[in-house]
């Protein structure tokens, strides 16, 4: 295919994207290049994990009360070091940190904020299963360009994202990202030290043949979700059922398969976690932007995810995303599921 022989690097692709914006200063492009460096470093360490002392935990807990794994901690620090000094950001936030990660007073501040999950799939690190880095970029809204960003800069609704993406550390290292002009995938060639365009303009089919959900939680699901999964397992040639279950347990990997092949990924609210389990700012928003840019749909069960106004940095959110027809069908099953009064009020308050 033509794009395979043209050897388009991600740096060239970023430069080409910049030309679509005649008033661009280049700051956003340089921000993305700094982030690509961090991802290269993390990819190298992941590949060496069996040799380097990065398996196991540090002995500390993160803000969510979860054990911090060594590779999590390394990835978090790598992104902070790569991004803090470029002059493109006014603040950062990480799933591993409690609050704002400020840009030091002595350093230049920029017009963007970065939110990231440094290493999604922590439980899979020590068993050599696919893991990934997820990122989300917003333009700052606070007026003083010389000051560190504040919480209003970091807790914006997802539709305001100017870029989102993830790196996937699997059989190869893949980078999937969007700046609002479609979704492109790059594959890392370690012999060249470059990400090369491998799948341009990814488009999801309207229907898929796969579903991805943790069926170990099935006893906690509400009736609508139980009925929907039973529907997917029924045999019906007209709707090409039953669907095949595929579940890795790393959200970014399961969403990646859904993005590439179609179908549906689900991490619903249930009786134990009425607000869902995934984090809105670090996982749900960026993954939802990618799914929508590829022609799919992402909802929390009732509402478009990208319309939700966050209440906090570490807010959790249910997620159903994937092929449009599959997600719409799932909604018909779960729209009458019970939600606690507190959650119902919060959802109503956070939807414009």
Q: Can you describe this structure?
A:
The chain is of the alpha+beta class. The chain has two domains: 2-199, Fructose-1,6-Bisphosphatase, Chain A, domain 1 (2-Layer Sandwich), CATH 3.30.540; 210-350, 3-Layer(aba) Sandwich (D-Maltodextrin-Binding Protein, domain 2), CATH 3.40.190. The chain is 31% helix and 23% strand. The protein has ten helices and 17 strands. The protein has helices at 2-5, 10-18, 27-47, 70-84, 151-154, 223-233, 251-261, 280-293, 324-334, 341-350; strands spanning 57-61, 67-69, 89-94, 101-102, 112-120, 131-139, 161-169, 173-178, 184-189, 194-199, 210-212, 244-245, 264-267, 278-279, 297-299, 316-317, 319-322. The strands form four sheets. It has an eight-stranded mixed sheet, sandwiched between helices. Strands 12-11-13-17-15 form a five-stranded mixed sheet, sandwiched between helices. Helix 3 (27-47) runs antiparallel to helix 4 (70-84) and helix 6 crosses helix 9 (324-334). The model has no long low-confidence stretch (mean pLDDT 89).
What's this entry about, in short?
This protein is α+β, with helices and mostly antiparallel strands. It folds into two domains: 2-199, Fructose-1,6-Bisphosphatase, Chain A, domain 1, CATH 3.30.540; 210-350, D-Maltodextrin-Binding Protein, domain 2, CATH 3.40.190.
């Amino acid at each position: 295919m033509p794009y395979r022989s043209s050897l388009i690097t991600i740096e060239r692709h970023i430069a080409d994207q910049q030309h679509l914006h005649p008033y661009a200063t280049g700051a956003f492009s340089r921000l993305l290049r700094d982030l690509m460096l961090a991802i290269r470093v993390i990819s190298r360490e992941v590949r060496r994990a069996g040799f380097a002392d990065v398996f196991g935990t540090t002995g500390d807990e993160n803000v969510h009360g979860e054990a911090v794994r060594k590779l999590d901690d390394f990835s978090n620090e790598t992104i902070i070091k790569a991004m803090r000094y470029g002059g493109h950001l006014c603040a950062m936030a990480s799933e591993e940190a409690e609050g704002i990660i400020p840009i030091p007073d002595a350093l230049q501040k920029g017009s963007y904020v970065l939110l990231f999950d440094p290493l999604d799939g922590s439980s899979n690190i020590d068993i050599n299963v696919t893991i990934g880095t997820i990122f989300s970029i917003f333009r700052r809204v606070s007026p003083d360009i010389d000051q560190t960003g504040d919480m209003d800069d970091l807790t914006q609704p997802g539709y305001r994202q100017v870029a989102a993406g993830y790196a996937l550390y699997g059989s190869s290292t893949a980078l999937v990202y969007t700046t609002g002009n479609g979704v492109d995938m790059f594959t890392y060639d370690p012999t060249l030290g470059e990400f090369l365009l491998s799948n341009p303009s990814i488009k999801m089919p309207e229907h898929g043949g796969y579903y991805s959900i943790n069926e170990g939680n099935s006893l906690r699901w509400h009736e609508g979700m139980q009925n929907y999964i039973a529907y997917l397992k029924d045999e019906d040639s007209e709707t090409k059922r039953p669907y095949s279950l595929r579940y890795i347990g790393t959200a970014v990997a399961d969403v990646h398969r859904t993005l590439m092949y179609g179908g549906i990924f689900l991490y619903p609210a249930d009786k134990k976690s009425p607000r869902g389990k995934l984090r809105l700012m670090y996982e749900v928003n960026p993954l939802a932007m990618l799914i929508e840019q590829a022609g799919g749909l992402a909802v929390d069960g009732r509402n478009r995810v990208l319309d939700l106004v966050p209440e906090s940095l570490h807010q959790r959110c249910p997620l159903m995303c994937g092929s449009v027809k599959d997600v719409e069908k799932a909604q018909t099953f779960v729209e009458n599921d019970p939600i606690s009064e507190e959650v119902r009020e919060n959802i109503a308050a956070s939807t414009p």
